[in-house]
Specification:
Elements (H helix, E strand, L loop, with lengths): L14 E2 L1 H8 L3 H9 L6 E3 L2 E5 H11 L10
Antiparallel strand pairs: 1-3, 2-3
């Protein structure tokens, strides 16, 4: 659900929790907690709650993408 953006004000990011981030990554919550601990992904702390910007998680996934091996050049 996107809010309408007021002119001159940045959009508020869509925040997700660890469970949702784990679902996006198709991994367990423990893995997500580990990459947070290792500071491999950007987080937002609200009190003691860890949240992620959904777009940051999508970009993080894209940054991990590797091209396939070109067997003809190997």
């Amino acid at each position: 659900m996107a809010d309408k953006q007021e002119p001159g004000r940045p959009l508020i990011p869509e925040l997700i929790d660890i469970k949702t981030a784990a679902g996006m990554l198709a991994v367990g919550e423990r893995y997500v907690r580990n990459i947070v601990f290792l500071r491999q992904i950007e987080i937002i702390k609200i009190g003691h709650h860890v949240r992620f910007d959904r777009e940051v998680v999508r970009k993080w996934i894209e940054d991990l993408r590797r091209p396939p091996n070109d067997k003809d050049n190997a």
